[in-house]
């Protein structure tokens, strides 16, 4: 049971039918493979994960692979991290996602972007994700542990983003505080520059916030 082989079969199925039914491939303690269909939508995902956990436990499995369609969003350099799920992002892309779990961690994740072109499916170049990534589909860890790890990861990413943007604006406005002869501008002039910098930072955040709200509205209309 190899993730690459399973993914290739999934691509054929997706291309022939136009959609792919989520599936799990569970390796039993006897090294046999049990295949399970995972029927779920966003509201039923937890139920599907619980069912998968029960199957993994039933077969005393330490390795399994899940394959399903997903949304992928590539975060831009100046974009606030974890602002919204990939499914809510305007420039999201469809992909076929396969993740291999080996107790207690993720072993490998492969994403294959695709798009519907006329009456067929066009696949992009596959992307192998960092094997240290978190996944709600990892039934080897408690849900509370996953939530704790994700909260920590998102918090650290946001704090780093804010530090980086602060450094960017500090560097950008640094020279504005100085006169051409090398002397520092007056307090009144510096205050105006600080206000100008804050207004630009505020405008950047407002633009990003508006984008997220528009994406959420579009997502609600498409439900």
Quick rundown:
The protein has 223 residues and is α+β, with helices and mostly antiparallel strands. It is 43% helix and 22% strand.
Question: Quick one: overall form?
Answer: elongated
* Domain module tally: 2
Counting helices, strands and paired strands, the structural category is alpha+beta
Helix content: 40-55%
Largest sheet: 7 strands, antiparallel
Distance between the termini: 36 Å
Query: Nearest-angstrom radius of gyration?
Result: 23 Å
Give start-end ranges of low-pLDDT stretches: none
Succession of helices and strands: HEEHEEEEEHH
Compute the average pLDDT: 82
Number of helices: 4
Description:
With 223 residues, this protein is an alpha+beta fold. It is built from 4 helices and 7 strands.
Descriptive tags:
single chain; 223 residues; alpha+beta; 2 domains; 7-stranded antiparallel β-sheet; 4 helices; 22% strand
List the helices and strands and how they pair.
Layout: H1 3-17, E1 23-27, E2 33-37, H2 45-58, E3 63-72, E4 93-102, E5 105-117, E6 120-123, E7 127-129, H3 143-173, H4 187-221
Antiparallel strand pairs: 1-2, 1-3, 3-4, 4-5, 5-6, 5-7
